[in-house]
């Protein structure tokens, strides 16, 4: 018999891989990759660990430290030694557009600790209008949470301009008793969105977040409270605890005024209004014609403005500081309706808007030169902002309608503002079509 010749593999084909070949490939290729990955992970973890233990040693920037703080650090608190970047992000998930590490809370701290049920004024201050802060502290005689915005990108403790500004405020705490006793200043570093530094929702959120009382007053710039305003507001704390809003009517001088002496009482104010020297000032309306409603105010009875509410209404108002009240949106900080957007969120969330007639504020510009420098919006910019605001209004309608419906409160009074302001928007989206009629 003929011997069978072995079958040779066809030229160009590969042998079937064996276990020994696979082990060899694993040893040559896979193991180095695994060890490389482990080594890289250990090195990276070590770097992050040492950076956490000694954050200043790994950062090239210099923090603002030319002036000592006005209070001692509590070494027993872990939050005292935690960098602001981590502290702010942990405490406030909806953090500001500014880098949290550029926010220095309580850089200057008031000497007195305010009572928890007091009302804190939230405001904005610059090196050019610190005299307004002095005037406000004297008029309010209570806690103030102010934001000092330094117009700089690089934090350097050898910058003469920064040192000069901080020295100015440090001397202010030494020389002025009202500032020393009542004012907390939180330093913010970074370029402002607007060319001219002015109050925005970013500053209001920061000032509100670090306020040390249960209630906060959103006060516009160049606006001054009457002598007994705080005492009258405290009489309506029950409404604030129900997450409602208290409005302080603002009054302004007319062109017929020959002097600008502020009235101290309601009777003096009514007399000036009757003489056409002053009138209720609602931004965007002629005097005495806005939603605050002069005819209702003159009756001197607490009244609700919800039925006359307008989406561009932006009065000076008091709310609870806590999370039950929505934080102000920061998307509109380049135009004047940012405060109106803030109030709109609270209104859609179910808050009632009440006007306190016994208390009032006076809108008056002391610093006329600073006012003349304020940036004016062009016609095109105004149209763009109006369209943006309309889109925000629609988004807010849908957002708070979903929240209220998700909490099964659509048939409660909390949903009345959404039903009143947003029926067309909600029906166009095809949602709550049956519920909106109820």
Automatic annotation (TrEMBL):
Keywords on record: Glycoprotein, Membrane, Signal-anchor, Transmembrane, Transmembrane helix
Keyword Chloroplast: no
Transmembrane portions of the chain: 25-50
Annotated Gene Ontology cellular component terms: membrane
UniProt-listed InterPro entries: Xyl/GlcA_transferase (IPR051292)
Cell compartment(s), UniProt: Membrane
Entry membrane topology: Single-pass type II membrane protein
Keyword Magnesium belongs to the record: no
GO BP annotations listed: protein O-linked glycosylation via mannose
GO molecular function, one term: xylosyltransferase activity
Name of the featured protein: 15888_t:CDS:1
Lineage, broadest ranks: Eukaryota, Fungi, Fungi incertae sedis, Mucoromycota, Glomeromycotina
């Amino acid at each position: 018999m003929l011997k069978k010749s072995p079958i040779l593999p066809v030229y160009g084909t590969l042998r079937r891989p064996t276990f020994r070949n696979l082990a060899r490939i694993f040893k040559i290729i896979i193991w180095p990759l695994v060890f490389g990955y482990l080594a890289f992970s250990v090195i990276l973890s070590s770097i992050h660990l040492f950076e956490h233990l000694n954050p200043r040693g790994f950062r090239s920037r210099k923090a603002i430290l030319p002036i000592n703080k006005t209070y001692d650090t509590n070494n027993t608190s872990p939050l005292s030694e935690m960098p602001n970047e981590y502290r702010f992000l942990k405490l406030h998930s909806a953090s500001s557009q500014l880098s949290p590490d550029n926010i220095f809370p309580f850089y200057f701290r008031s000497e007195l600790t305010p009572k928890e049920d007091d009302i804190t004024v939230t405001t904005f201050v610059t090196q050019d209008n610190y005299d307004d802060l002095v005037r406000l502290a004297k008029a309010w005689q209570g806690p103030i949470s102010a934001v000092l915005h330094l117009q700089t990108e690089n934090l350097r403790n050898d910058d003469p301009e920064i040192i000069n500004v901080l020295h100015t405020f440090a001397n202010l705490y030494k020389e002025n008793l009202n500032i020393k006793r009542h004012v907390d200043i939180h330093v913010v570093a970074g370029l402002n969105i607007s060319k001219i530094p002015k109050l925005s929702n970013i500053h209001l959120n920061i000032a509100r977040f670090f306020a040390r009382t249960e209630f906060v007053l959103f006060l516009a710039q160049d606006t001054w409270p009457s002598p007994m305003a705080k005492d009258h507001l405290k009489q309506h704390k029950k409404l604030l605890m129900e997450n409602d809003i208290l409005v302080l009517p603002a009054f302004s001088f007319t062109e017929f005024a020959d002097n600008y002496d502020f009235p101290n009482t309601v009777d003096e104010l009514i007399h000036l209004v009757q003489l056409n020297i002053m009138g209720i000032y609602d931004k965007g309306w002629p005097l005495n014609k806005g939603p605050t409603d002069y005819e209702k105010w003159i009756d001197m009875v607490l009244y609700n403005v919800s039925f006359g509410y307008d989406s561009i209404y932006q009065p000076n108002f008091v709310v609870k500081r806590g999370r039950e009240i929505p934080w102000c949106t920061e998307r509109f900080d380049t135009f004047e309706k940012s405060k109106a957007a803030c109030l709109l969120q609270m209104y859609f969330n179910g808050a009632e808007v009440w006007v306190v007639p016994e208390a009032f504020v006076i809108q008056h510009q002391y610093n006329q030169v600073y006012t003349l420098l304020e940036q004016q919006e062009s016609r095109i910019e105004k149209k763009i902002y109006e369209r943006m605001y309309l889109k925000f209004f629609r988004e807010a309608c849908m957002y708070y309608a979903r929240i209220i419906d998700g909490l099964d409160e659509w048939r409660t009074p909390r949903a009345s503002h959404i039903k009143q302001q947003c029926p067309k928007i909600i029906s166009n989206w095809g949602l709550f079509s049956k519920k909106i009629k109820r």
